[in-house]
Amino acid sequence: MNEQFSRTELLFGREALEKFRNSRVAVFGVGGVGGYVVEALARCGIGALDLTDNDKISPSNLNRQIIALRSTLGRYKTEVARERILDIDPDISVTVHNIFYLPETSCEIDFSPFDYVVDAIDTVTGKLEIIMQAKKAGKPVISSMGTGNKIYPSMLEVADIYDTSVCPLARVMRRELKKRGISGLKVVYSKEEPIKPAADADMTSKESGRRAVPGSCSFVPSAAGLLIAGEVLRYLAGIK
């Protein structure tokens, strides 16, 4: 038994650990949610990870993103995540794609080698493209809905997109997926009513002409990411 994974093996068994090591998982978005997905998958021995994100770490990420440190400011999130993964387990194969995933860039990533696909990005257009490409390739996919303006991680749950309620992002996704003939999608979402951002912060975003930036904390996006990772690992281990 490899000591690094001895506690994991006690839970899942040796056969599951071998499946983890032989699996390749794609994670789109390595921020507040996706960073914790990657962390958990790496610590459980997933053999190959593909990380897609075009953002660089900024000071506003320090409050909630596991890869955001003073020492990593200004660097691509994918590159920092790769270094962290390899420091956890140097035997993991890590492929990075520093692109903003949209229909016009989707040709740069082949979904056929993936054993599971995780959507942890913010833009509806990008999310829809990820889901469509995963479904087209016959790959299981899980999508993160909104975690901004929320403070109760206990209200997060795993559900089919068509069984969701309250979440504004899930409402938009339901409508758009129905238009595209997608009959089901596993998601992590929250029934918590979003908190209205503080007036002064909201006013700043309006004055700049930008879409209002949601408030966020360290413990809701991370909880969503860990829920997603658990779904991925149980699927790969054959646990329903």
Summarize the structure in words.
- The protein has 240 residues and is α/β, with parallel strands linked by helices.
- It has a single domain (3-237), classed as NAD(P)-binding Rossmann-like Domain (Rossmann fold, 3-Layer(aba) Sandwich).
- It is 38% helix and 14% strand.
- The chain is built from eight helices and seven strands; from the N terminus they run ααβαβαββαββαβαα.
- Strands 3-2-1-4-5-7-6 form a seven-stranded mixed beta sheet, sandwiched between helices.
- Helix 1 (6-12) packs across helix 2, helix 3 (34-43) runs parallel beside helix 4 and helix 3 packs across helix 8.
Q: What percentage of amino acids are in beta strands? A: 5-15%
CATH topology: Rossmann fold
Low-confidence stretches: 202-210
Query: So what's the overall shape?
Result: globular
CATH superfamily: NAD(P)-binding Rossmann-like Domain
What can be said about the biggest beta sheet? 7 strands, mixed
What's the CATH first level? Alpha Beta
DSSP helix fraction: 25-40%
The CATH architecture category equals: 3-Layer(aba) Sandwich
Secondary-structure content class: alpha/beta
How many strand units? 7
The structural domain count equals 1
Terminal CA distance:
25 Å
The total count of helices amounts to 8
Task: Give a quick rundown of the structure.
With 240 residues, the chain is an alpha/beta fold. Helix content is 38%, strand content 14%.
